[in-house]
Amino acid sequence: xxxxxxxxxxxxxxxxxxxxxxxxxxxxxxxxxxxxxxxxxxxxxxxxxxxxxxxxxxxxxxxxxxxxxxxxxxxxxxxxxxxxxxxxxxxxxxxxxxxxxxxxxxxxxxxxxxxxxxxxxxxxxxxxxxxxxxxxxxxxxxxxxxxxxxxxxxxxxxxxxxxxxxxxxxxxxxxxxxxxxxxxxxxxxxxxxxxxxxxxxxxxxxxxxxxxxxxx
Length: 216
Ligand SMILES: Cc1cc2nc3c(=O)[nH]c(=O)nc-3n(C[C@H](O)[C@H](O)[C@H](O)COP(=O)(O)O)c2cc1C
What we know:
This protein is α+β, with helices and mostly antiparallel strands. Helix content is 47%, strand content 12%. It has helices at 3-16, 30-41, 60-68, 75-78, 93-106, 115-125, 130-154, 167-174, 209-212, and strands at residues 52-57, 81-88, 158-159, 181-190. The chain is globular, with a radius of gyration of 19 Å. Flavin mononucleotide binds next to loops. The site of flavin mononucleotide has 11 residues, from loops.
């Protein structure tokens, strides 16, 4: 496929996707879920640090509890898999050490050669105050969320980016504090209930290109 036609296909897929309000409970195959997860794992992050964890929830009881913490939004229970993107609560010197060790192992590079990079990350990230660090960590998650939305659309899987939940309640339900995590954003994956969802087929509302882009 040429680049142009691959991009046209992608634009069609992005027009097909929408933030699905009602899903039909049908399961997404394990193979397709694995592929979407792999695109999340491949997402770019600042320094490559990946300061978050993605929970993949199929358990109906857990989903029901999360629905209650998400203002009753039904896609949390009617989806096939509910992804909860969880930011690390902090980044420590140990996290950076682990990452540098991964680079050394996976690229077969000597640790000494990575000392400068390690010091650079540590010098930039460790001094940040807790709130600034949290905002920085959560920004990385939104890049992964975007990747997942595109990957789901390409696989003809419906998805709903969701911030409409009470993070403290979801953290409690999933025992996140004990894992050094906090919930940031959720992504139910499944299939639309085309007859039951008032937004199926609704025209996309986007600002016109000439009001959105400025060419300098
Ligand atoms: C970060 C984020 C949080 C969102 N939270 C919710 C949510 O809690 N529930 C929901 O139904 N839609 C949610 N949306 C979906 C948006 O309303 C939707 O993406 C927007 O209206 C554009 O429509 P489209 O995605 O269907 O093209 C969220 C979207 C984003 C990007």
